[in-house]
């Protein structure tokens, strides 16, 4: 957290420390997903530029790594979309790995991982009710009968779970 505070105060030494520490990790993260050294280098550089430009709005509640990888993911998606559009208008082969389907796959995989982690961290009863409803397709009445609770209580647990997921996904997407 001290790096965040220092970077927010325009401390270039703190920024350099974060750059040196996370550059290889960000590069590897992007390279693994895109299989392109060019895109990985471009996205990594743009990520650190974005970090510096947005230093004033960094959250002191989240670790620098969480915020940095979130930025990298968003920059990667933006770059891939631009590349896909460029290929489309230049008439290049649609079989290029940099297509909208790749972007969608990355977004979906990342969101699913975030959601699964959030579901695991829910209170036990909320998690059980949510999983029975959404993953196993049981009705509110069936779940209520299983746990000897009212269907309204099931509805309450599901609405709380959905609200929790929605709030966290919203914060991640910013």
From TrEMBL:
Keywords: Sigma factor, Transcription, Transcription regulation. Gene3D superfamilies: 1.10.1740.10, Winged helix-like DNA-binding domain superfamily/Winged helix DNA-binding domain. GO terms for biological process: DNA-templated transcription initiation. GO terms for molecular function: DNA binding; sigma factor activity. SUPFAM superfamilies: Sigma2 domain of RNA polymerase sigma factors (SSF88946), Sigma3 and sigma4 domains of RNA polymerase sigma factors (SSF88659). Residues 119-165 form the RNA polymerase sigma factor 70 region 4 type domain. It comes from the Bacteria. The keyword Transcription regulation applies. The keyword Metal-binding does not apply. InterPro entries: RNA_pol_sigma-70-like, RNA_pol_sigma-70_dom, RNA_pol_sigma70_bacteroid, RNA_pol_sigma70_r2, RNA_pol_sigma70_r4_t2, RNA_pol_sigma_r2, RNA_pol_sigma_r3/r4-like, WH-like_DNA-bd_sf. Residues 19-84 form the RNA polymerase sigma-70 region domain. Belongs to the sigma-70 factor family. ECF subfamily. This is RNA polymerase. The lineage of its organism: Bacteria, Pseudomonadati, Bacteroidota, Sphingobacteriia, Sphingobacteriales.
